[in-house]
Amino acid sequence: TLMRARGPLKFLTQAEATQMDVELMSKVEGFSVDQLMELAGLSVAQAVAAEWRTDGIGARPRVLVVCGPGNNGGDGLVAARHLFHFG
Predict the structure, then answer these.
(1) Considering only CA atoms, which of 1, 10, 78, 87 is closest in space to residue 40?
(2) What pLDDT, in 10s, does the model give residues 28-40?
(3) Cβ–Cβ under 8 Å, residues 33 and 71
């Protein structure tokens, strides 16, 4: 399920985001780029699916996913795949 933030939102600084990337992608206990991309895309798809309600008959509205190159584009393609499977 999608969890909503309660209270004020916290944003990471650039240094904090960089450090998080280093820790998440460390060779010892980190994730691969493919695993991180899969997790990011799934999270986006879950958020979109939670916000876009059905029309009462069970059909969901169409979604257009536009992706560029690079890892963010890969996240978008993963999100599109999950949205397709969500119906």
Answers:
(1) 78
(2) 777 888 888 899 9
(3) yes
